[in-house]
Write the C-alpha cells for this entry.
Amino acid sequence: MSSEYLVLTLGAAVAGVYVFRDVIFGTSSKAPPVVTANSKAAVEGGGDPRDFIARMKAGKKRLVIFYGSQTGTAEEYAIRIAKEAKSRYGLASLVCDPEEYDFENLDSVPENCAVIFVMATYGEGEPTDNAVQLMQNLEDPDFNFSKGEHRLDGLKYVVFGLGNKTYEHYNFIARKTDEKLEEMGATRLGPRGEGDDDKAMEEDYLEWKEQMWPALAEALGVEEGAGGDTQDFVVTEETHPIEKVFLGELSARALNKTRGIHDAKNPYPAPIVTSRELFRVGGERNCVHIELGIEDSGIHYQHGDHVGVWPTNPEIEVNRLLCSLGLWDRRNTTINIVSLDPMLAKVPFPVPTTYETVLRHYIDISAVAGRQTLGILSKFAPTDDSKQKMVKLATDKDHYHNVVAEGCLRLGQVLQYVTGHDILAESTPDNTTLWAIPFEVIVSCIPRLQPRYYSISSSPKYHPKSIHVTAVVLKYESVGTAGVPARWVYGVGSNLLLNLQYATTSGHEKLVEPLLMEGEKLERAHVPLYAIDGPRGAYNANSVYKVPIHVRRSTFRLPTNPRTPVIMIGPGTGVAPFRGFVQERVALAERTIAKHPESGISDWGTMWLFYGCRGANEDFLYKEEWPKYSEVLGDKFQMHVAISREGPRKPDGSKIYVQDLLWEQRERIRDALAEKKGYVYVCGDAKNMSKAVEAVLMRILGEANGGSAAVEGQKELNMLKEKSRYLTDVWS
C-alpha cells in the first residue's frame, strides 16, 4: 500500500467517524459514548473538576478505575482493564489518577456502576505517592462521605494489586484497600487480584481477570460480546513544520526550549561531568559510575533519593520493528495521533512525531512481549502458519513461557520467530516478513517507555552540583529452546549508561562485544547501541553527552541527630546510597570540627558499613574512597567487608557474607540498637540478602531480650520497623 493511499484511507476513516459520530458513539451497547465537547465543558467549566462522579455521568461511564502507580505499571494495567471492559462488554470507563479527585462522594456511585482499584505497594508497605490521600480517606474512621457516615454500603468494587513476594509487605496496599472497603459495607466483585512482579505479573493478571470479568458482568447486567472490536487511536500522516515535530523530546518545554521546573513530566538533560568503570577493566562484568551535572537546573536532591534516567530503545530493536511493520522507508514521516476517547486512553506521548521516534523514544519495545499483546496481533499474521504459531504463544501458557519468557523475546523478535527468521540477524527490509499491523494498534498495545530508577550515590552537601549514579550493567543469558538460541540479553537503562560512559571516555560511541568466558560457545546478540546524540543532537554538545533525568524523593534518610548510631548493610551496588550517607556525615563532620576543634565529633554515634563483593581487585566499589572518609570520621566510621571469593571462610568451608559479619559484631550491634536507639539501613537484593540480614538481626535482638529469634527477635524487629528505625531500599 502506498503512503498516499494510506493517507487517503485514514483521512476518509476519520471523516467517516466524524460524520457518523452519533451512530458510532451513540447509546448503542455496542459502542459506548465518548464525552462530547459540551459535556466536558460542563464538568471542567461549570462543575467541580475533582468530582469523578460528575465526569462519569457526563461521559456515561459505568466504570471508574483508580490507579495507585509509582512507576507507571499500575496505570498501564488500569488502562488495559478499561480497554477490555469496552471491547468485551461495551462498558465505558473513566481512568483516574486518584490525587486529581476527591472521595467524599465515593458513597454516591450509581447502583449500576462499579469502582476498580489498581493498587501498587511501594517501599515499606506504603501507598504510591498519588494514592496517599485515597488511602487516608479509606482508613480514617473520622472521614465521612457525602451521606455523613464512614460507610460505603451498596458500592460495587474490584481490586487488583501489584507487588513483589520478595518484599515483606507483599501487596499490602491492595489488601488494605480490600479490607477497608469490605469493612465499610462495599461488595467486591470476583476475587482480589494479586500480581507478583518477582515471578510473572502478566500471568497473574491474565488468570485473575478471567475470574473477575464474569462476576462484574453479572453484577452490572451486561453480556460478553456487546462491545465489539473498537480502536483507541487514529494515526494520520501529516505535514508540520519540523520545529513543531517531537523527535524524542519528553516535554513541550524541551521542544520549545523554554525554562520550567524539571520533574517526571519535564526531565532535565543533565550533562555527564565524568564517568568511569568501577569493576576490573577486562572483566566479565561492568559497573558504571556517572556524575550528572545539575548546576543551574533548579534540581535539588537529598541523600537517599532516587534518580530516574529516561532511556531510549536500542537501535537494533527500533530497526527490527521498522522493517517488520513496513515502515523502513517512512521512518521519518510525520504522524499525528488522536485518541477516540481521551478519558479511556490518552495519547501516551507528545505529538506530532514520527514513526521512528515513537519506536526509539516513546514506547517500550524492549520489554518481553506480553501474551495478551500477542493474541491481539495474531489477527495480522502474514500467513496461516505464522498465525497458528502466534495464537499458540498467546493461548498456551506453558509454550509461551518456554519460548517467549525464557527466551526473553521482545515483540520484534517474536514477529521474526513466528515467520521463520533468524532473530540474531540484523533486520533489513529484504530479510524481514512484513506484518500489516496498523500503527494505532502498536501504540495501543505497547506501554510507554518508563524511566529506570537508581539510588543516588552522592550527598548534596559533598557534591552540590552533581548527582552520582552507580549501576551494574545488566547482561544475562537467555534459556535456549528450539528455534530460539541462547544469547546475551541486555538491560535497556544500564546499557545506555554503558554506551554513554564509553562515549564520554573514548570519544566515540562504538562498543565492542564483551568477551565470552573461555570455552563458552553461546550465540550472542549484538551489543545494543543507542542514538545517544538525542533528538536534534540535543544530548551531545561538543562531545559532552547528556541524559534526561528527574529526582524521586525517598524516605531513606539518616537520622537528623549525628549522635545516633547507624548500621548500614549494602553489598554490591547496594552500597550506592551509603556512599551518599557517609559523604553527608563527612561534610557535617568537617564543619563541626572547624567550628569546635577541641570536642569535634567525639559525642557522635558510630556509622557501621557492612559491605560485600566478590574480589578485592575485581568489584570492590569505591575502594580508594573509604579510607579518605575514615580520615575525617575516625573511629566513628567502621567498615566491615566480606569478600566472598577470596579471604577467610567459615569452619565448614562456606563463603562469608555481610550477614556473617553482622553476627560477628553482635555485641556492638545489640548495644547500638537496644541501648543507643540506633537505626538500621539495608540496601540491595530483596530475595536473599535482606532476608538473611533480618534473620541475623532477629537472632541478635532475641538473645538480647532473653528469648528466641522467632518470638522476641521478631517482636523487636517489628518495633524497629514501626518506629522507622529499620529502613530498606531493596530490589529483586
